[in-house]
Amino acid sequence: MTPDAIRSFVQRYLSEHYGERTVMLLTSRVAQKSYGTEKRFLCPPPTTVLSGSWCIQLPSTSSSSNTASNSSTSMQPRLTIQISGESNQQSGTLEWSTPPPPVLPSAFISSEGFLHSSSTIGKCVSKQLHINDADEKRKRVQVLVNIQLANNENIGTFGSKGIKVISKPSKKRQSLKNIDLCIHHGTTISLFNRIRSQTVSTKYLGVSSQQSTSSSSSSSSSSSPSASTNNNTAASNCCFVARTNVWDPFVIWIVDPQRTQQSASPLDNNNNNNNGANAHHPPPPAMALHHTGKEQLAVHYNQPIVLQCLSTGLVSPVMSIRKVDKGSLALSGIMVMEPTLSSTTEALGDPVSQLHKVAFEIKSPPSPVSATNVSPSSSSPSHLYQQQHRNIFLACLNDVVGRHKCHNPPRRVASQLSSSTTAAAALRQQQQQQQQQQDKPALSSGRRRSSTAPSSSSALDQNDPLQGAVFEQDVSDAAVWTIVGTDCARFTFAVPTPTSTPTPSSPQDTFYMRPDIAPFPVVSSVSQGDTTLCLWGESFTTHLTVYVGDLALSTEFKSPEALVCVIPSTLLSSSSSSSPGAMASKKQPILLVRNDGVIYKTNHSWNK
Questions:
Q1: Could you check whether 179-414+463-485 and 522-607 share the same CATH topology?
Q2: Closest listed residue to residue 189, CA positions, set 487, 489, 401, 486
Q3: Architecture of domain 179-414+463-485
Q4: Which helix (DSSP H) or strand (DSSP E) does residue 187 occupy?
Q5: Distance of CA 68 to the CA centre of its chain
Q6: Fold of 522-607
Q7: Which of 1, 242, 429, 564 has the most beta carbons within 10 angstroms of its beta carbon?
Q8: Which residues pair with residue 413 across a beta bridge?
Q9: Which residue has better confidence, 2 or 344?
Q10: CATH architecture of structural domain 20-168
Q11: CA angle, corner 337, sides to 334 and 342, nearest 5?
C-alpha cells in the first residue's frame, strides 16, 4: 500500500476503530502436571475470546437471503489449540454471545477501557488440555492457538502468557518473594467449586446478566445493593453465578473496611498502581487498599477483600478470605483490640497460595468498640469474634452463588492456647510491634510487615505457634473454593480492505483479512530521548513503522527486540501539528503499522 493509503486507513481506525479485531487468551498462572496415563486437565480451562466481526462473507451462487444467512454462519474462523511442547492438537468450537452489560457508570466506559467494543464475542473453552510428564525439565508452557479463516487463509498462531508447571499445590508456607505461587492484590484470579473432588462437578464463579429468580431464607443473591460499590441500574441485572462450561476472571482487592464510598471517589483510585496501571482493568473500588510500592502485595488469609468482575466491574461484598483444611474446615484468626482505632481487628495468616482451597466469610459492617469500656470477659477472642462475624459464607448453591449460613458456631482449634492467654499475648505483641515501627522503618522480611494490610499491626510472628489459626468451622463443600491466579494475553489489530473505498452500507462484508498476522509484535516499554523514541519488546521486523496517532515516524530496525524512531518537530512542539484534528489531544496512541497496512495496537501512548 502507498503511504497515503496507509495513513488514510490509520485515520479511519483511530476515529471509529474500523476493522479492529481482538484475540484474548485466558489461562491460569499455574497448572498441574499429569503423570502416566492420568489426565489432569488444566483448570480453569484455557479460553480463547474473539471480539469483532470475524465471520467473512464469501461470494454465493444463490441469491436467496436464507442461503446467504446460512452461508455466513458457517464462515466463522477455525481454531486449533495445543500446549507448547505437545504433539496433540485439538479443534476448537466458538460460541458467540453478547457480553454482560457493564455495571460501571458511563464515565468509566471508553474505547481504551476493559469493556468489549463489539456487540458479540466468540468464546472457545478448551477443556481437554493437559500437560504430560514426557519432559521433566519443562517448567513453563504456553497455550498455542492457530486461527484460520473460512477461506483457508491462515492468520497465524498466538501464544498465551507462560504457565508455571507444578506437580501439586504446595502445602508449605509461601515466601513473599515467590511471585508465581502467591496471590497478589490487584491481580486476576479464577474460583471454582468442586464437590467431593469430582472433576465432573466443577463449577466456576462467573457473572450473569440475568437476575436469579431463586430465593430462599438460607441463601440470597450476592448481587444485593451492598455487592457493588457503584450505584448503577445495570447492577440490578447482574448477579454472581456458578457455571460448568465457562469462567470469568475476577480482580482480587485487599480493602480497608474503614474506607467507604463516601470517603473517596473511584476516580481518585485511577492513579492506584495495584495492577500495573492495566488499561483493561475496571477502576478499583473506593475501599481498595492503596499500594504505591514497586513490589506486588501478597494477599494473606483473614484479610478483608472484595472480588471485582473483570468484564462488568461488578463488586462483591466485603469478605474475609479463609484457609480451608481437612475437607471443609475454615480457619480464622484471633480478634484483638486496635487501641489507635478503638475497634477490633483480626490477625493475619499465611500468604494465599495458588490452587489452595479457600472460603469467603461475608463480613458484617464494622462496629467501633471503645477500648476503655471493655471488660475482661467481653474482650476474649470468642466474644470479639462473635462481634464481627455472622458465620455467613459465599457458597455455590446449584447454579446460584449465594450466602450460606453456618448454624454451628466456630470452635477453638484444640491445639491452641486458652482464650485469655492468647488474647493477652497477641495484644502485647501488637504493642511491641507498634513501638518497633517507631524505631525502625520496617520489620524484617521474616515478619508480617505493617504495610501489608490495614489490620496488620496485630499480625503474628511467623514463629508464633498460633500462626493466625485460632478458630475452625465446618462450612460444607458448597462454600469451599479453589483459587488460582489467571493471565490474559491480548492481541488487537486491524487490516485494511482490498479497496480504498469500502462499501459504507456493509464495510465488514467487504473486509478482507490478510494472512500471517502472527507472530504479533509486542511492545513492553517505551523510552524517550531528546530526539529519539525507543520501543522495546519482541517479534519486531524490518517491515514495521511506528505511528504516533496518524503521524508516521522515521523508524530504524535495530533488532527483533528494539526499534528506534526519530521524533519530528511536530511532536516536540506543542504549538504546531501536521494534522490539527488528529494531534489536538495530549495523549496519542502509539501504533505499529506494517508496510501492507496491518495495524498492531501497542497499548502505549505519546504524551505531549
A1: no
A2: 486
A3: Trefoil (2.80)
A4: none
A5: 39
A6: Immunoglobulin-like (2.60.40)
A7: 242
A8: none
A9: 2
A10: Sandwich (2.60)
A11: 150
Do the beta carbons of residue 498 and residue 56 sit within 8 Å?
A: no
CB neighbours (10 Å) of residue 367?
Answer: 9
This prediction has a pTM of 0.79
Strands 163-166 and 30-32: parallel
> How far apart are the C-alpha atoms of 37 and 437, rounded to whole Å?
54
> What's the grid cell of residue 103?
455495571
Which residue in 318, 316, 423, 331 sits closest to 377, CA to CA?
423
Of residues 126, 119, 107, 114, the one with CA closest to residue 26: 126
The per-residue pLDDT for 152 is 82
Nearest to 130 by CA among 191, 237, 41, 190: 41
Interacting residues of 587 by C-beta distance below 8 A, sequence separation 6+ = 605, 606, 607, 608
Indicate the pLDDT class of residue 371, thresholds 50, 70 and 90.
very low
Please give the grid coordinates belonging to residue 395.
457458597
Residue 130 burial (C-beta neighbours within 10 Å; 0-12, 13-18, 19+) = middle
Query: Grid coordinates standing for 537?
Result: 519488546
Write down the pLDDT at residue 589.
93
DSSP label at 215?
A: -
Nearest alpha-carbon partner for 427 in 452, 460, 402: 460
Measured over the CA atoms of residue 588, residue 593, residue 599 and residue 603, the dihedral's sign is negative
Which three three-digit cell numbers place residue 530? Answer: 531528546
Q: Where do the domains of the chain lie? A: 20-168, 179-414+463-485, 522-607
